[in-house]
Write a structure and sequence with these properties.
mainly alpha
Length: about 140
């Protein structure tokens, strides 16, 4: 949340470290434990001011790799039962539709809007996680 407030106040110097190993570990840990890896990767990537296509593609590929890496441990822990697998099977045909809609929206939205929305959703998710922590 502080990262987003810093952006909102126009402070160009980020307090976030550019240590790729630190942020990689935070992304992997938070993605695995609470399915919230978007925060750390956003804090790392948003200050780089990548073009919108590179930003979104980087995040998509990163979470694809992370989710693939979680398949074996989650399976060994028994997290994939019949209900989960049937739900995935039913929803699988919708994935290409979601990708297509996302691609169309990404190409229509301005880069400035993509970044504003990224900071907004990062702030909202931070607020939610903070509320969960105190609740």
């Amino acid at each position: 949340m502080l990262f987003c407030l810093q952006y909102l106040l126009g402070n160009k110097r980020s307090f976030a470290s550019n240590n790729v190993w630190l942020w990689s570990m935070l992304v992997g840990f938070s993605s695995t434990t609470i399915h919230a890896g978007g925060g750390p990767i956003s804090i790392y990537l948003l200050p780089t001011k990548l073009d919108k296509l590179t930003l979104i593609t980087t995040m998509a590929v990163l979470f694809c790799v992370i989710n693939l890496a979680k398949l074996v441990p989650y399976t060994l822990l028994g997290n994939f039962d019949r209900t989960n697998l049937l739900t995935a099977l039913v929803l699988m045909p919708l994935a290409p539709i979601g990708v297509k809609i996302g691609g169309v929206l990404l190409h229509r939205a301005s880069e400035a809007l993509i970044y504003r929305l990224s900071y907004l959703f990062l702030f909202l998710s931070g607020t939610k996680l903070l509320g969960d922590g105190f609740g």
